[in-house]
Amino acid sequence: MQIKIHTEYITLGQFLKFAGLIDTGGQAKDFLAANLIAVNGEATAQRGKKIHAGDVIQVNEAVFKITR
């Protein structure tokens, strides 16, 4: 699935909300603790991690490609 951003970057927490995986930003911490998240193949749980166009985010089995 492709996710289009209109800024230089978004944070991982913002991505989760934008992709419809969480309803509010406050849910990000719990979501990250309960799910396997990888950014460009590297596991992460940092909700403030910057996501740029061209990055690939894997959430459990779902894969998202970030475009501009």
Task: Give a quick precis of the structure.
This protein has 68 residues and is α+β, with helices and mostly antiparallel strands. It has helices at 12-18, 28-34; strands at 2-4, 9-11, 37-39, 42-43, 50-52, 56-59, 62-67.
- Sheet-strand content, in percent, reads 35-45%
Low-confidence stretches: none
CATH architecture annotation:
Roll
CATH superfamily caption = RNA-binding S4 domain
> How many β strands by DSSP?
7
CATH class descriptor: Alpha Beta
Percentage of helical residues? 10-25%
| Tertiary shape | globular
Assembly type of the chains comes to single chain
Mean pLDDT metric: 95
> Helical stretch count?
2
| Major β-sheet strand ordering | 1-7-6-3-4
Structural class: alpha+beta
Characterization of the model:
By secondary structure, this protein is of the alpha+beta class. It has a single domain (2-67), classed as Structural Genomics Hypothetical 15.5 Kd Protein In mrcA-pckA Intergenic Region, Chain A. The chain has helices at 12-18, 28-34; strands spanning 2-4, 9-11, 37-39, 42-43, 50-52, 56-59, 62-67. Strands 1-7-6-3-4 form a 5-stranded mixed sheet, with no helix packed on it. It has a two-stranded antiparallel sheet with strand order 2-5. A hairpin with a 2-residue loop joins strand 3 and strand 4. The radius of gyration is 11 Å and the shape is globular.
